[in-house]
Amino acid sequence: xxLPEEIKNIINxxxxxxFEACAVGGCVRDFILGHKADDWDITTNATPDxxxxxxxxxxxxxxxxxxxxxxxxxxNPRLKEIEITTYRVEEKYTDKRHPDVVKFSSRIEDxxxxxxxxxxxxxxxxxxxxxPFGGQKDIKNKIIRAVGDPQKRFNEDALxxxxxxxxxxxxxxxxxxxxxxxxxxxxxxxxxxxxxRIRDEFVKIISSRNAKKGVEELSGFGLLKHxxxxxxxxxxxxxxxxxxxxxxEHNLRALDWAAENDYNFETRLxxxxxxxxxxxxxxxxxxxxxxxxxxxxGAQMTAKIMERLKFPNKIIEKVILLVRYHLFYYNVDEVxxxxxxxxxxxxxxxxxxxxxxVRMSDRKGSxxxxxxxxxxxxxxxxxxxxxxxxxxxxxxxxxxxNLIKLLGIEPGPKVGxxxxxxxxxxxxxxxxxTKEYLDEKAAALNDKSLDxxxxxxxxxxxxxxxxxEEEFEEIKKKFRV
Length: 481
Ligand code: ATP
Ligand code: MG
Known about the structure:
Layout: H1 5-16, E1 21-24, H2 26-33, E2 41-44, H3 48-55, E3 59-61, E4 67-71, E5 81-86, E6 88-90, E7 102-104, H4 108-113, E8 123-124, E9 129-130, H5 135-140, E10 143-144, H6 150-156, H7 159-171, E11 174-175, H8 177-186, H9 195-206, H10 211-220, H11 229-232, H12 247-260, H13 265-273, H14 278-281, H15 294-308, H16 313-324, H17 337-347, H18 352-365, H19 373-386, H20 400-407, H21 413-428, H22 435-446, H23 450-479
Parallel strand pairs: 2-5, 10-11
Antiparallel strand pairs: 1-2, 1-8, 3-4, 4-5, 6-7, 8-9
């Protein structure tokens, strides 16, 4: 077992100057586990001033918690910036988020005692482990245990509630009993933590292999109702004859499939949320209950959930699309190229693969043995076939400037209407995407009134949105969704 060269150099420089220095925290934990550490942190009895003196220009002191960032000369991006933190004891946390004061200490034991879990409270100088809380043993037994009194530790800093569940999911560890009890007792304090910090932990849970277990724990501990309460609406909500699981269980199993197959984050979240609209749209009970429009309601709920958690708009938009269109229809004999083109247009060509993956999660999560590999292959083939067909006005063989010149009209809404009406025809038949045809058609459209064009434009929009669905009516009726 060896420290990375870059870390050893920093530790050596500090000890040559007469100070103690060790790697500490998540990096030591990951190293013992044989995982790649994301970031290496060093702790020392040198004060920020003393650290800066040793590393000179390469050191940057940027926060009041006593952390100095040192630039290392390395090709490894994870080791370019290393955080060196002075030993510290933490005092009171009045707001359950930040310590009121930060006090430096000269003893490493103090610094380890302020850390959250035993597995994160091990220091290592490359030769010896300093492990006063039995972290190595807990790593061996795969246990998350609070350092000291769990009740007090969660009460100090409520983010630790999420960190426990997140680290347990990432490492597939079990949260020890006393720690679990304190977690449940303090769960409601998660509400004082900022949405951004909750989101970051939530993303890590969903991105881990044990995402399903993580979400189940969030719920079991009483945290989920403060984060994504909408998901819990599905608990005990039974479905109709096409399903064997409740909505909650089905959503979780869909997520599990997505995690098992290492789908990207958006696809995982869409798998988890794809049926989130079902409880609110359920009509009737038993084998014949229905869930009409759950994908539309679910997409709206997805938007609310993700906006609340302050996700970037681009990610929100993508997950909404995946939830909104997860019901797309594809029956080998019935699906037309025109409807596949409109599906691709709706969901965006860049999202098609992910949409198919959400569909896989949906089917696998429903307990259906096969995920219809033949049908899916067939659909993929059609998508491939239509992939070069025009699906946006940008891909037409005529553009706004051409149109203005050709028709001698002013820039304005009329141009957009005509282009979209032309696109509608081309979506039905890509062979019509020639300059000759479109010029002629545009000239004919130019004779119509602006109101008439506006109406045709609106019809075309609706058609694109609905055509897919019209063809899906059958499946929707069949499955009562
Ligand atoms: P990862 O880097 O994989 O997300 P980590 O455990 O390394 O996980 P960091 O946020 O990098 O988490 O924190 C580094 C170390 O700082 C932790 O291992 C832990 O010792 C300590 N730490 C981090 N957050 C807290 C907290 N909220 N309360 C107490 N100690 C913490
Ligand atoms: Mg870390």
